[in-house]
Design a protein that fits this description.
globular; single chain; three-stranded mixed sheet; 8 strands; 20 helices; alpha/beta
């Protein structure tokens, strides 16, 4: 079965930049496949998260086609390398180290606290909102809805709230979960209940877990509820039960509540009941501060000019900053060179050419919508008319090429579309480009405009 994994990996290697392939794809080791579970090992947590975001969905799709079944994935991390706590996608099994005699609730990551969060002009309100909720849980700021792009610090603040509430109220029960985990737990409980109708109600246990047990419920990536009707209904009743009992709810999302297409209006309305705060892209000064904080945590000797060089080149999000610093550290270790400005510029030049910086899915959507003279909400919406469908596929193609975002992430930016829809669109445009000179001209022009922004 391991050979099956190797074939699936090779199927995507031709579409992967050689630098990214060698750095992020090949270090992932398949330990075995058994009973529908794939066991993988990554060198460290950053490699694991990068692989999950950028490569895993495509590989799993290929495996499903080859084996005619779905697979679950289990990861081992060879060494837990600490990272600056503004990345997303924290593993649910992470357990922090709280004060002696007061163990941190399972699921809260010890790296993500208010002390390690770098505050800047574009996340200042979000940080202040999170602090207010942590100090007055269950008050008028309920729910707190944090939204923004990938890798900007939403998950960090979510966990920081949990840590601070736990510090002040050590006996409170704090539940932290990704929306995907909530949905999976719900579906598993529902299916198992059907298999064992005579047993103690598994659905009652599920509902008690989310409606009765928590004093605080922290849910990451609530946009995962899009187009999941039964799960939305379950979360609606969970939300109502907790809110009525004045239990604090904190949600993170990549979009505003009103932009969560595929989520029922009654839920959108409830998400907006409390306080909504945006986490924006960090400006240059904030990026420099993040780099210096990261270097301090990692005990890396970085001068101010090197920190400035990194922050000037990497402009997208904190995850990319972490990746650049990891590259610098790794190459310095291999070559024995000091991380000075000259060495940093060499490494950063390679990174800049391998991964275009400064692009966002939203900027690409606006550029495509303007070019084709269509409304932005139509481009992101469900309309299938050719005048909208073709530009939408072009926007998805450019988003994948220029941002490096995962297929699920791109799908979420287009009204919560399934990642398979994005994969199909990218393949379609990629194929048409080889035979349609007019399309090549349009895509090249759009890309040129985006690079000049």
């Amino acid at each position: 079965m391991i050979e099956l994994w190797g074939e699936a990996v090779r199927s995507i290697e031709g579409r992967v930049n050689p630098a990214n392939r060698d750095q992020w794809l090949r270090p992932i080791e398949c330990l075995g496949i058994s009973e529908g579970r794939i066991h993988l090992r990554a060198p460290n947590r950053f490699h694991k998260e990068w692989f999950e975001d950028n490569f895993l969905p495509s590989i799993l799709d290929n495996l499903r086609e080859r084996a005619q079944r779905t697979f679950a994935v289990e990861f081992q991390v060879a060494e837990e390398a600490p990272m600056l706590g503004t990345s997303e996608d924290v593993a649910s099994e992470s357990v922090g180290e709280g004060p002696p005699g007061r163990p941190t609730p399972g699921g809260l990551d010890s790296r993500y606290t208010f002390e390690t969060f770098v505050v800047g002009a574009r996340n200042q309100f979000g940080h202040a909102a999170a602090s207010m909720v942590a100090n007055s849980p269950g008050s008028k700021y309920n729910p707190l809805f944090l939204y923004g792009g990938v890798g900007l610090g939403k998950t960090h603040l979510l966990h920081a709230i949990g840590h601070e509430i736990h510090r002040q109220h050590s006996d409170w029960r704090i539940t932290v979960v990704t929306c995907e985990q909530f949905v999976t737990h719900f579906i598993r409980s529902m299916l198992n209940q059907r298999k064992q109708p005579s047993s103690i109600s598994l659905m009652e246990e599920f509902r008690a877990c989310y409606r009765e047990t928590p004093d605080v419920l922290l849910v990451d990536d609530i946009q995962f509820l899009c187009n999941k009707d039964s799960s939305q209904d379950e979360f609606f009743h969970t939300f109502n039960a907790l809110h009525l009992a004045q239990k604090q709810i904190v949600l993170t999302s990549d979009r505003l509540p009103a932009e969560l297409r595929g989520v029922e209006e009654r839920l959108q309305s409830r998400f907006a009941w409390g306080l909504i705060a945006e986490i924006g892209h960090p400006d240059l000064e904030t990026r420099v501060a993040i780099v210096k904080r990261k270097a301090e945590i990692e005990k890396m000797a970085l001068s101010d000019e090197v920190a400035l060089a990194i922050a000037s080149v990497i402009r997208s999000n904190v995850r990319e900053l972490e990746g650049a610093m990891l590259q610098l550290s790794a190459r310095s270790s291999i070559t024995g060179r000091t991380i000075d400005r000259e060495f940093a510029e060499e490494v950063l030049k390679d990174l800049a050419s391998a991964t275009p910086q400064g692009f966002s899915v939203e900027a690409i959507q606006r550029e495509v919508a303007n070019h084709f003279d269509i409304k932005l909400h139509d481009l992101r919406g469900p309309k299938r008319h050719q005048s909208v469908a073709r530009p939408r596929m072009i926007a998805m193609y450019l988003a994948r090429k220029l941002t490096g975002s995962s297929f699920p992430e791109i799908g979420s930016r287009f009204g919560g579309k399934d990642h398979s829809t994005v994969i199909s669109a990218v393949k379609k445009i990629d194929g048409l480009l080889a035979q349609d000179a007019n399309l090549r001209s349009v895509v090249a022009m759009l890309e040129s405009h985006l690079r000049q922004r």
